[in-house]
Design goal:
Elements: H1 11-19, H2 24-44, H3 48-57, H4 66-75, H5 87-93, H6 95-103, H7 108-116, H8 126-137, H9 146-153, H10 157-174, H11 181-190
Helix pairs in contact: 2-3, 2-8, 3-7, 3-8, 6-7, 7-8, 8-10, 9-10, 10-11
The structure holds 2'-deoxyguanosine-5'-diphosphate and fe (iii) ion (2 copies).
Pfam family, one: HD
InterPro entries: Diverse_Catalytic_Enzymes (IPR051094), HD/PDEase_dom (IPR003607), HD_domain (IPR006674), YqeK (IPR005249)
Keywords: Hydrolase, Iron, Metal-binding, Nucleotide-binding
């Protein structure tokens, strides 16, 4: 029997499909994101079931080969500028397309939360923010500042989005990594003083 309205698969079946796509370590991360996303959904009044499904599927495509992303970007008419980026950017934006086709998830809010989970965006729904933040603070994460991010997340979700956007950008700059334009848009909307 179908256990939710967003996917033809119930949570158990979905979990199994997700688990088959990734390492034990990444699957543990996914379960941590789910637990955190459901807690944030309860705190901020989003649908916990939607948060659960978005969290379970957010990194679904992360271990797919580069060639598969390149093929899908061309075949499904994504912006070809994506070909200049890599897995870090593809697994959310393009990964949502794998989730839709292979897991039958058609809920546009869930798909958008998956698309935005790495970079954020200027416009973010409550669910987008929950997945973006839960991914950053789930119990398995350990980096300087994560404890502060966890505390902020349960006080003010927008402040947590800002904290994450700023610190992710600082980290990328420190590593001299290219910044995806959407990450800058996120910074300008949620961090920069107007
Ligand atoms: O998939 P996860 O490891 O759980 O976390 P994620 O999807 O938030 O981030 C994946 C990676 O993407 C992480 O190493 C940081 C990186 N990233 C985020 N924004 C940008 C970025 N990498 C580049 N080059 N540019 C960005 O703007
Ligand atoms: Fe991710
Ligand atoms: Fe993740």
């Amino acid at each position: 029997m179908k256990a939710n309205n967003y996917s033809a698969l119930d949570r158990e079946a979905l979990m199994q499909k997700v688990q088959m796509q990734m390492s034990t370590k990444r699957f543990k991360h996914v379960l941590g994101v789910e637990e955190t996303a459901v807690a944030l959904a309860e705190k901020y009044g989003a649908a916990p079931e939607k948060a659960s499904i978005a969290a379970l599927t957010h990194d679904y495509a992360k271990e797919r080969p580069k060639e598969e992303f390149q093929m899908v970007i061309r075949r499904e008419n994504f912006d070809l500028d994506l070909l200049n980026w890599n897995n870090a950017i593809w697994h959310g934006i393009v990964g949502a397309n794998f989730v839709q086709r292979e897991l039958g998830i058609e809920d546009e809010e869930i798909l958008q939360a998956i698309r935005l989970h790495t970079t954020g965006a200027a416009e973010m729904t409550l669910l987008d923010k929950i997945i973006y933040v839960a991914d950053y603070i789930e119990p398995g994460r350990s980096f300087p500042g994560v404890q502060e991010a966890r505390e902020i997340a349960f006080l003010n979700l927008d402040d947590a989005v800002a904290y994450e956007a700023k610190h992710t950008l600082l980290h990328l700059l420190e590593q001299e990594q290219p910044i995806y334009p959407k990450s800058i848009e996120t910074y300008n909307r949620w961090v920069a003083k107007k």
